[in-house]
Amino acid sequence: MKHRLPQLPYKMDALAPYISEETLRYHHGKHHAGYVNKLNALIEGTEYEEMSLEQIIHQSDGAIFNNAAQTFNHNFYWHSLSPMKTEPSDPFRRAIEETFGSMDAFKETFVQAATGQFGSGWAWLVLDQHDRLLIETTSNAHTPIEHHRTPLFVCDVWEHAYYIDYRNERPKYVETFWDLINWDYASKIFEDKEHLKATTMLPICNNPDDPMCEYFDELLHQDMTSS
Prior knowledge:
This protein is mostly helical. It has two domains: 21-79, Orthogonal Bundle (Helix Hairpins), CATH 1.10.287; 90-195, 3-Layer(bab) Sandwich (minor pseudopilin epsh fold), CATH 3.55.40.20.
């Protein structure tokens, strides 16, 4: 199958002035597109050609893994951002407070993790296999779904995510990211993950043209078959 570059879930200038239109055009149209195009070229004529993105991530290594994982990570990153102010749902907020002590303590821990990630990588809030909340950083292309963890949101800390707007000031970019978190998206994943056994489809995946639908369908299938 041909993997494709998704449209952004908002306009190119929607995150300005926090993340500029110029950054989004380069980040989405050049970097993300480059990973998708390279992945398609690498898997053509191979056993990976008919696999889903998640299957490729779990079964490949080297350049194929790197481009597949970066494609997934970027797909997820765009949905982690919102031009509108959002708030975590009550159940999600309670879980964060129970895990980290308070929302302020959670923010401080997450910002420290994202800022302190050495070199290129990602900072995630995830659910582990036991539905416990964890802050996880991954280097380069690595992603929590390698280890069957469920991402809730992610901050891209590769320099191309922020260098146009913030130069080498990663801490300033991470603080800005906090103001853009799409808590609605993360809350839906958190709540749907808790109730998969009572659902037939994750309501967050209501656009069949969104490549994240494939991921959430697989997530649903995994939970249904493991129950």
